[in-house]
Amino acid sequence: MKSTEHPRFTLSPYLVFVLIHSMQFGSEYLTAANKPIQLAGQDAWISVILCGIIFHIVIWMIYRILNRNETDLIHIHPLFFGKWGGGGLNFVFIVYFLLVASYQLRLFIEIMQVWLFPDLETWPLALVLLVLVYYIVAGGFRVIAGICMFSLVRHITIMSLFFTAGYFHFNNLSPILDHSLNDIIKAGNELTFPFLGVEALFFCYTFIKTPEKSQKWAHLANVVTTASYLIVIFFSLLLFNSEQLSKEIWPQLSKYKFVQFPFIERFEFIGAASQILWVIPILCFCLWASSRTFKIMFTVRQSTVLPMLLFLVFTAVCLIPGRDRNEAVQTLLSEIGFYMVYAYIPFVYIVDIIRTKVRRTV
Amino acid sequence: MNSVPPLWKELSESSDFVCYEQQTNAAPLFIGYFKSLTEPKILHQHILGRLSNDSDISFNDLYHSIPVAEKEISFDWDLIQNKLLRGNVAIQYGHQSHHCILVDAAASKGRSVTISEVEFTVEGPKAAFVESLDINLNLIRKRVPFPELRIKELTVGSISKSRVAICYIKGVTNEQYVNTCIQRIQDVQFDQVTDITVLQQMIEDNSNSIFPQSIGTERPDYVAWAVSTGQICVLMDGSPLTVFAPVNLGSFFITFEDYYLPWNVGSILRLIRMTSVLFSVFASPLYVAVMTYHGQGISNVFLPTIISSRINVPFPPVVEVLIMELVIELLREAGARLPTKIGQTIGIVGGIVLGTAAVEAALTSNFLLIIVALSALASFVTPIFRMSATIRLLRFPFIFAAQLWGLLGISICTLAVVAHLLRLTSLGMPYLVPFYPFRASDLYDTVIRPPYSKFHHRFSFFRSPNPVRFDKKNANSKRDIDE
Fold this sequence. Notes:
The complex is a heterodimer.
Chain A: H1 14-24, H2 34-40, H3 44-69, H4 73-115, H5 122-138, H6 141-150, H7 155-159, H8 181-190, H9 192-195, H10 200-204, H11 215-239, H12 242-247, H13 251-256, H14 268-273, H15 276-298, H16 302-319, H17 323-361
Chain B: H1 6-9, E1 17-22, E2 29-34, H2 40-53, H3 59-65, E3 71-74, H4 77-85, E4 88-93, E5 100-104, H5 133-143, E6 149-156, E7 162-169, H6 175-186, H7 196-203, E8 215-217, H8 220-229, E9 232-236, E10 242-245, H9 263-292, H10 303-310, H11 317-337, H12 340-360, H13 366-379, H14 385-423, E11 425-426, E12 429-430, H15 472-475
Antiparallel strand pairs in B: 1-2, 2-4, 3-5, 4-5, 6-7, 7-9, 8-10, 9-10, 11-12
């Protein structure tokens, strides 16, 4: 079975790098350093590398599944699990993507409410951002990839942390390998959620010009994501000790307070406003993927489904009242993500191997 | 006038249509032309003069005896009518036959080639296009004496019947772009297409966008360059502007003078131009955002300067900015509508007097005055007029967004503009190429203007069938020290 899109809509393989990196390196980077450092202390960087390696294996599995079937997950599901089973799984993914979108949007609005505008209501900002998302998604997959590419500008704000070098405490890094393997693995477990995003490959596969050649770019994206998280973790370790860190909700934003320029006193304003570059690509992709799954499952026009899904996200965002609830959504999502990466993807991989074996013997 | 052929009667309702019968020995001749469109010298010396001398001449002999190259025989009334309206003289031989000899005697009245005033250059050639299509085509042909240069002529507008010419080099320009362009021009449904800027709006990919998707220039050298890189240019009779497409966003910030300066000087000037565009869009919105919401964001060194200049101003920053932006736009608009000399005076007097008075009356702060004046100045460095208008207007949504949500508003607005630019195309070519889709090999002539040895291939996004401009290997001879 082969289903690729019209060549006019396909993308060059290198854009897989941009896309996967944008999906992986989302707003979670603000909190990513917290829990691993609580668990593994100065050895948290080992967990990051560990997690990165696991995700390389996951990407490899995803490509094996996709290359063998030469289509995306939306079409693979009914193929493997029948019309109803496959449809159900597709529906689970729609819900998953909508949840991710709601969580990311609510988190972003929360950051804005805490750091920039304490009096800001949730709904007007959500409305404006979702209209923007509609405009981008309506432009098609190429435009989404373009927004992901533009969002790479955000790395400038992370690099600005090198200006804080004067405050580094290199003593915080030693002694190395002070924690048990168990702690390190637990910390790596906490990092699964920040690393999520590779599942995007399942949905954009048919939109890549030569999908087989794009694998190296996906791996490169994972390498860059790992490196980015390493930088984030190292900055956290160098600038805070673990007691301080346990009191911070978004240590990354606090770190921007250390950055000083001759005429900008509070860099964290820029840091907070640039958060939009972390959120919009993920929102766009999630809504694109869910509306596309909808389109293929129920044979409706994507442009009619999209506003409905946006409305769903809008209501969900308005219904999540504050920090506690959003934390609950995050816990839920990280659990779903955990099972997806460590159980579901290997499961599909094994089913795929068995299917091809059975076919060959028959 | 009873003997006038019936079809001519309708035309003769216009007082400038001359129509009469001339008796000869063989058969009567009917002669018709528009007085207002013909050149009397050609008419009397070469056409009418011959008719009266040879009085018993046959139809064919008459046709051959007229010493004008552009003549033909036709019996198609629509063609005859069109030709008459383009300054031809129609000669009908006898009552019965509908055959007419059509002789071109069009008067070409219009200004001659002058110095370019909109896109002025210090060192480059100064000739600019004029309103006559034939002169303009001559200017292009002279610069591109290449047999593959193709010129296709079309007519647009049911009333204006404007002559439109499409120029491209066959084998260099992608045929798909040519076909799209011709198709779009043929699909235009409009009666009076007065100028190429009207046509430009009708054939662009997204006519609701404030960003132009084709470049209009008055410089023949620029057009010759564009044609040689694989772009198509469109000219129209009666319009001193030549439009070419497909274009990307970057090409709007290139003046052709960059190519006449040494590459490093040209590059620096181009960089200054591009930064000034960013400054022009973001400066006053940032002022609003910082003054309204993020006052603590400014460093202590800088803060006293701003506060002391703003201390007497009673308005919130956004009103202050809007007043000043409006004043600048007014001065600009007034300067553009008035005759040159008065316009200059108004500009200087208005600028200095209004500026100083506004600060003294505490309507605005010194600091803002500088920002607004600088950003207005910066918006004028954009060489293409339509783009410079876009840049001027683009800052207003940013100002409102900054008033609404400060820096967050500016970043949302930026993303919206980027999303819009990502969706735009020019003749189907992505607007942000070569940055998105990313083409590393095409980055050479974007932000900097490299030396000419780097121009060895055409931009791949023009999809030229012949991408090589010259052989790179032969050009770069290997040289060593002291050789």
